[in-house]
Write a structure and sequence with these properties.
The complex is a heterotrimer of chains A (about 120), B (about 425) and C (about 220). Chain A has about 120 residues and is mainly alpha-helical. Chain A has five helices and no strands. Chain C contains nine helices and eight strands. The longest helix of chain C has 16 residues. Classes of the chains: A mainly alpha (about 120), B mainly alpha (about 425), C alpha/beta (about 220).
Chain lengths: ~120, ~425, ~220
Amino acid sequence: MRIYGSLLFILTLITGLLEISGAGIVPNDIFGGFVLLVISATFLRGIAGNEPAYFYFASLMLAVFGVLYLLVFLANGLDAVILGDEWSPASNMRPEILFIPLALPGVWLMNRVRKEVGA
Amino acid sequence: MDFAAQIAMARYERIGEILGRCMERVEKPESFSDMIDKVVLDRYLGIPVFLTLMWAVFQFAFSVSAPFSDAVDVFFSACSDWAKNTITDPQLASLIGDGIFGGLGFVLVFLPPIAFVFMALAVLEDTGYLSRAAFVMDRAMTKVGLQGKSFIPMLLGFGCNVPAIMATRTIENEIDRKITIMVNPLMSCSARLPVYILFAGVFFEKYAGAVITSMYLLGILLAALMATLFRKLVFGGKPSPLLLEMPPYTVPTLRGVFTSAWVRTRVFLKKAATVLFIGAIAIWFLSTHPWQATEGGSVVENSYAAVIGHAVEPLIRPLGLDWTAGIALFAGFMAKEIVVGTLGIVYGVGEENVASAIVSHFTPASALAMMVITLIYLPCLATIGILRQELGGWKWTGFVVAYELVLAYMVAGIVFLGCKLVGVA
Amino acid sequence: MIRTALAGNPNVGKSVIFNALTGAKQKIGNWPGVTVEKKEGICNYKGTEIQVTDLPGIYSLTASSIDEKIARDYILDEKPDVVVDIVDASNIERNLYLTMQLMEMEANLVIALNKMDLAESKGYRIDVRKLSNEIGLPVVPMVAIRNEGVEELKQTVVHAANSPKKPAIRYSDEVEEAIGEMEKKVTKERILPEYPSRFVAIKLLEGDKTILEKAGKRTEV
């Protein structure tokens, strides 16, 4: 879990910094970048203090934002259809959507813990 | 010891007796909620995590709902065009096309973001996070006469004040809720942005971004100031202390979320919508009549709306604004989105070429005054409808309208004169 | 039709129980004259209609806040057939304080002991039958979020409406003595005869402003 958490920490940190700096490959989005940095800090806190709760919650946030951007992606597509605008899936794609599968192990573990120890 | 304290103690004694006979201690494990609370109430991460989740709510409410709003818009525009093309009598065509269908479209575009806000809020409420959020923000909010639960409605105000004001329903304390509602229109909603973009872009070119940001900051500052004032002068007392029970976390159910969102959205549909719809028709009438003089609604200068624009001109002249700004601001009363469009109609140039036309009517100083007025002056019609509903009558609604007008005039005056003083024309 | 009101502290799962009882058949409005949300709904138990009114979440009944005043006035003046007092089992001591006050008002109470699953996580186990005997009221254990106990609650409400229980609560002798004396005076002078005399006596002794005002007006006339 620590190794996996570290990987996600580095991944979210780099993506977040890229989004803020607008260095190209990922969309330039200051707020989106900030979100990733918070998630990355949460992963880091989990690694540093060896507390799985931070790993679970960071994974949950990663999943929530992945699903959210997926919804925004679909909404933009739908909007383009309604307004008759041009729309290219590639330009609306966001790295967070690709991170959804990476977040699943943490979310799954979190749910298992919830069922075991009770709310 | 007085009797009130004595009986309170007696009640607890009795409770102790009862529980002593039917309760037994067991080993207490660390619960799941304790675990999660460690993260969300973390000394350093608590606030960033909160802001992050708020950003998610914001995106969900305003980005994901956009196609639905656009669909409503497209649908009613089509209805409107259809009516204008098929009905031969031009006045009736204008009434049905622009007035009724235009009005319906205008009212119903608010429906998707409202429903989405309520869905997001229901999720936060049902998971149990909302009371943690209130806890995290309570200290900062108490300083300005609000409380932790005021934060989310204030934040939502940046999108649209209508769902934001409805979101105050999560605040239990009557006075805290009232104050939150009353300062909410000062949060600069997205409809005001086009006005800032236009004026800042034309008059402040390189510094447009900074000017726009400062409008938002001005709104926040005034909201904090007014909340403090209302608390001190109008209501008295202190923000109610958060007697927060942290409910354990639960997984929300789809049904629960939809029921909660639907029941609250229905309130908007039922009450606010009728007020909005009538108002929309009224504005249509004012901007297209007298029918002969406006040549069938196309010459706005001759309409009743223009009469009103001229009537307010003496009032806004000291701020460097003329009657065209008067009409635009009057139209903005219906929805601030249409301020820019109205200027286009008045100058007869269409929305795309307004930028070049405003140079002759405004100076940088009066442009700033115009932006400040747009930020503060009147809640739009939709917001007034919702204010009346949520404040329970016209008395407080009238108070909000009045204080905003006075505040707008004062602040715009200070900004305009301040510009003159430092030599900005 | 049976008229019930849901009372309880904030965050005891009152809205979950309200939704579980009434489903989508609910009406949202404001309490008259104020901007506090009022929810009403209807449910059905074996052919008996139960009207449910959701009272604001409160910690006590001193009428010091709008919410408390709404709840108190509703119970005193509208006299619902049954008042369901929702008690959070994971925070039972604090919650029972409201229960004591509801008992003083001589409302026909049913206790819904919600969040039963969480009591143990707080480190204790509650014997529901013993609690019911001790307190003299029907107690329904629930986990409303999982829909457990909802049918039992309806059944208990219907039963309570047909055979109302108003058990007396007795406090320490010293307190009882004061209450007894005041109660005699209340009965003799017919102060607020529409309310239970013991309740009026307690409120007068507590120096409750609204009750003092109401009583004052009456006795002066």
